């Protein structure tokens, strides 16, 4: 009786706890900051134990303020710009009255707090500037322009790495008018470019570069290059590009700042030119990375084991060594996850097991009798033909192109599921990049390659059947 009561009490307590969790998953902690339309809280995912930051927006205020399109644009931008030096958006959730942005929790606070204590050492300032330019270059390649870069919008993680945040004033390339320029006045006065103040239209990429120049000056000097208690007087200084570098600035740094804070946007330094600058290049390394299951994976951090090596790595081996290596990898491959009836139902309504390659939207699947190892090898072979990077984990293969576009490089994920002991389903999905490029790759490379695999398997099975000894002892002879 007591045990039953205790169990009932535990069940009620668990139910109460679940009800106190945000959407059954997040335990809300302290308030981190707030603005006119949103509050940001520290929270913990009770299932994983991970810390996150949750931005809570009031729907009524957003509707009254006419900010629905603004919020949608911010979400679209954050999903487009996933980079190690940009605060990551994990998911967006909503109730009747609130909208929740679940974001990466950056523990180190604002870079502004660090600068407020005094100027930084040159090597430290350079590291932050390098990370800032890497993030800005990544955004610009995807047609995203921040337009409000300043130390208050730059956060630091626990390892001292910079993270760009607050894309609320960001713009995307489809907002450009017919003259090829943006016309919205935005940004923080001390960091805003002279052409924005002129209100005649501006190139948002050049505006971000100007702001990066002001940030670099602040990191190195500990104060603003253009400053005055009177805002109009400060604007005049910005218009004229009047600033003086302190004596501890090196000639290389002064030269770079002069190009960054050039009042003429046409002659202002570009991102590729910044990356080739001598002062900037000291100790700079391009970060190679990818995201898997919302986790950032840096290529340089990966161990060169069977799961991460590219298909081209075996080219250095002798033929016999490669065969031994292939057999070893095949033996270590785990069995694919099995599909149940619900999985099959969740596939498209027209799913037909007799079809080789069923396409729909940004995904496709095919059925094969080939061994998992052969399917993975075929995917590697296809990737090698078009110089794609291959990453493998168990029965999942990721193919990533090298050509950058507004939506990033084409990234395709293939996962193998067991249908029966002798049949598997391979599901192919576009994870990133341009849809047109994905469809072209599927038609030109992926589909023909997988069809060839099926043909090879059929021919192999037919050849094996032909070589089997035929037992004729049970057949009647001619004399009978």
UniProtKB/TrEMBL annotation:
Keyword set, alphabetical order: ATP-binding, Kinase, Manganese, Membrane, Nucleotide-binding, Phosphoprotein, Serine/threonine-protein kinase, Transferase, Transmembrane, Transmembrane helix
Xref: SUPFAM superfamilies: Protein kinase-like (PK-like)
Boundaries of every Protein kinase domain copy: 26-280
Protein EC: 2.7.11.1
Source organism superkingdom: Eukaryota
Segments traversing the membrane: 207-226
Catalytic activity: L-threonyl-[protein] + ATP = O-phospho-L-threonyl-[protein] + ADP + H(+); L-seryl-[protein] + ATP = O-phospho-L-seryl-[protein] + ADP + H(+)
Region of interest called Disordered, as start-end residue ranges on this chain: 302-329, 456-480
Example GO biological process: signal transduction
PROSITE patterns, alphabetized: NAF, PROTEIN_KINASE_ATP, PROTEIN_KINASE_DOM, PROTEIN_KINASE_ST
Cofactors that this protein relies on: Mn(2+)
Presence of keyword Transport: no
Span of domain NAF: 334-358
Its job: CIPK serine-threonine protein kinases interact with CBL proteins. Binding of a CBL protein to the regulatory NAF domain of CIPK protein lead to the activation of the kinase in a calcium-dependent manner.
Name the record gives this protein: non-specific serine/threonine protein kinase
